[in-house]
Amino acid sequence: MNPAITPASPVVGGAFLTGLPSATGLSQALTSLTRGITSGTSGLPLRESLELEVSSLLPPDTPLRNRLPRIAGSGLAHAWRQVVNMGGGWGSGTDQPGGGAAAQAFFAESGAPAELASAYAAKSAPFRLLGQRGSVTGLAMAAGDSFFNQFQREKTHAVMNLMLMEEHALINGSSTSTAAPWGDGTNALAFDGLTNLISTGNGTPGAQVKSTVGALTLAHLDEQLTRIWAQGGRGLYMIMNAAQMQGLIQLAEGTGSLIRIQAQGPSNKVNLGMLVGGYVHPISGEVVDILVSRFLAPGTVLFGSDRGPDSSPAAEVVVLPQVQLPEAAPHQRVQGYVVQETAPAHDSPQVYGFLVSVFEVLAMKNALVFAKSTGVTAPVTGG
After folding, report:
1. pTM of structure
2. What's the pLDDT at 14?
């Protein structure tokens, strides 16, 4: 051993330390040092205490998507027959539409009535690919590993966001627009939503497609709902923007009808305001559901039916089954959303991507039991 180096002479980095303080002095020095670190110290590594790790900023409200039935499809396109009329024969002198020319219905013992046949329109629509991509880097996953599985959370958020996009498409989708989100700038890649499907060109009667309506009135709603009822619509609903829903509340509060406000609680507290939960059909008496959608443009009201006169669905979302990667789901058809992980690229090996997708199309099976009103403005109420 080098005689110059002794246990009493510590060595740090090849340099001799002399005059070191005692244990008590070292403790006092450290205490003095830590007094200078406060919660405001820049870059101080603190573990945050969060009530929830992540909050969803976008509310996943999809009332129309939740309402429409979903069935399995096959092939590259979905084909169906749209009912035009069920034969008629009673003539055109009644409010019941579809009568056409009068035809013999009563017949003699040795005779026969007229032969009547249903009329159909052949319809088809190709399946469309709807989805979004996402990715998380390896560094981000490693940094957040003690918090939650960031990769799985991002995939969950992607599915929720895709549901919102699907709601948007079911209402506003356009099969002719090349602009995003319906196309890539050159090609039209989407299917038509209800706003475009409810048209005279698709079989909806012209009387049920109203433009430049003006001020919202209960009489106008009654007229549209009555027209759908006459066509045999069952399970009626209306899709509105929040502005039109507020208009309904204004109409309800300004009708002059008696609306009692009941005080409650120990201090006789009163809840001011009201919510219109449904609309009573003027003819059938059924309660027409009101779906308030953030995706429907203000000034537009869509009227729909769950079923036609033969109780078959008036509109359906036809979903093409997918097959996941063999190792993920061997020999299994997946109906609906599929989350597929994608391989990292050669130039970015630490970027782990995924794709969320669904193959579907909106099929309107009976265009007669839908209606549309555009150009609806605020109601006129008394002061």
Report:
1. 0.79
2. 45
